[in-house]
Amino acid sequence: MPFVALHALLVLAAPLLQDQVVPPPPRLPLPRPAANAPIAEANQNRVPAGRLAKGTLTLALDVVEAAYRPEGTDDPVVRILALAEPGKVPQVPGPLLRAPVGTTVRLTLRNRSDSALMFSGFRQSLKADDDTVQIAAHATRELTIRLDAEGTFAYWGALKGLKTFEDRLWLDSQLGGAFVVDPAGTDPAKATDRIFVVSEWFHDYPDRAFESALAFNGKEWPHNERITLAQGDSVHWRFVNLAAIEHPLHLHGFYYRVERRGGQRGDSAVAPSQQFLQNMQTLPIGGTMSIAWVPTTPGNWVFHCHFASHVGEAVTLHGSPDAHTVRLAGQPSGPKPTVHGGHEMRGLVIGMHVTPAPGYKEPVVAERRTIRLLAQKKPGGLIGRQTAYGFVMQQGDSVPARDSIRIPAPLLELRRGEPVRLLVKNTMDEFTGVHWHGLEIESYPDGVPNFSGMGSHIMPPIAPGDSFAADFTPPRSGTFPYHSHLNELRQIGSGMYGAIVVTDGPRDTTRDHVIVAGGGGVPMFHKTGPAFLLVNGRSFPRPIQMTVGDTNPPRFPIMFIAPDTVPE
Ligand SMILES: [Cu+2]
Asked: Is the pTM of this model over 0.70?
């Protein structure tokens, strides 16, 4: 159902075009749960369901009417069907099925709801093609599943009669969970990996309006679990995407390897030679993925979906905190941004605290090369008279004009191992923060306002008129993006992005043709077209000159940062 997400964006886009405090979107009537419906608990997927003994996992799952609260304790509650072990609180995502390979699962599935349902994933053999299980309202089915393949799988239910996985919307959207088959001889109760299930509750209304909640393990940022990790300990995470849209999942500060990849038809190991170091991988619709990484630097870090709308207000039921209270310079006494242990991101974000190893000391650097960047706005600077947002570099003492910006932002040419200070001054009338994407640096300069840092030393949002010094030493050469990390849909979408090229030695500028593609206006998917995607700042980029037989052949460091899903 990707088209739905695009509609979501256009609804969001309209009010963002005005350069003023944006009023909260109207609250649409939400399907209310029955007064006696139990509130589902967020399932952290740490405790396997059922009873495992002598090679048999015996469990029962009931489908029940429930209430779902994806945000905080005072926030909206909506109606869902949920899965529960008998006598226990229903869970979102559904109970974790986990056992070693070779186990036989004896599952009693009871439908206590008034809806006829279909389940997928409870197939007789994990090597076989998927087979579905139909279950009438108030019926019970006894199922046997042979766990004859290792990996990360999913099971999910839907209202009977739906054609595809993506047709699930709100009532049946939280029927599903992770299904993990461990190597033979392992005890699932002792597993130290973590499992994150993505699910989306989505209700559409006339005129393309919608309400949506998008969460890892049933809760939205900032209301979800903070993960504590020890510096240097290897981390293994599994992901299951039960939402009807894919998610580019980005890890700050570190690189991960994808060890396994799967989907509704199975799960397979990625050959070690193909396990590239990466900080972003798209989790497809219905897909699974197992990643491994090592948090080598302490502090606070985020792992999040890189679609701006999936970490924004569009995917919440508009509970706390209200992202629309960001203060403007003209209203210094106005409401402060509401911050619940985090910042203005919402939705698909996992926050981590990496505790320092004994004796860890932040690097002390005597001298740094300083690069001055100004974060600025230019009213009417984009196609459609939208305000352009961007950066400009200050050379020497001459201050660039307040509305001078460049899209893409100035190329930052850094040397591997050379300490730099990126001094960002915010001349805009709104907050910002800048993230140096893919650079393995300390947490404080990483650029997530109100979260990056360690202990009580937390990076603030850069207020209008303020500056922020991001001090770091790039440890790896390559091409990296830098971009806003606040109000991403608007700020990145309107131009706050650029490339960093880190080299080991002098950069051969006669050979390098840096290509930076990104947004040229807040995404408005009902007006798709080249105007909203720019290549090197232009709808129709200039051709690159090359010479046949050149002994110094050109290279193309390429960076692409669309703020959100690209129109089809
Ligand atoms: Cu996403």
From this structure: yes
